[in-house]
Specification:
alpha+beta, 4-stranded antiparallel β-sheet, two-stranded antiparallel ribbon
């Protein structure tokens, strides 16, 4: 398991883009943004996520312009991320990690949600898509 432990390390947001060190040269025709999304926060309020894809999403951006590259990363400001930060624990259930949304509901609502729940996460730590001008 120690080999996988580095995959579950919490990441930090950047305050500002950082210039990347480039080895060699970047072709003049190469210009644009490369975006990646993945889990970036696995521990919140003393609770650890139980699966790799449960980590709260972090977007990484490599901006390539005029032979230089800058790097930036920020947490996706999903409702799930904001609620977890507010409550200091996972609020919505993720893939393998229980949420604590049940603590805000009465027993009848909790039983009903066992069979049909609208309390699903919007934590998007797997894929990112461009739709129109938005990512």
């Amino acid at each position: 398991m120690p080999a996988f432990a580095s995959l579950f390390q919490n990441q930090e947001e950047r305050d500002h883009p950082e210039n990347a060190k480039v080895s060699g040269s970047i072709p003049a025709w190469l210009s644009g943004c490369y975006l990646r999304v993945g889990p970036g926060k696995f521990d919140i309020g003393g609770i650890s996520m139980r699966h790799f894809i449960d980590g709260y999403a972090m977007l990484s951006k490599f901006d390539i312009r005029n032979g230089t590259v800058t790097f930036d990363k920020k947490f996706v400001q999903s409702i799930a991320y904001k609620k977890a930060a507010e409550h200091k624990q996972p609020f919505f259930p993720e893939f393998a990690t229980k949420g604590n949304i049940a603590s805000t509901k009465n027993i009848f609502t909790r039983v009903a949600n066992t069979f049909s729940s609208t309390d699903i996460t919007d934590n998007c730590s797997i894929n990112v898509y461009q739709i129109g001008d938005e990512v």
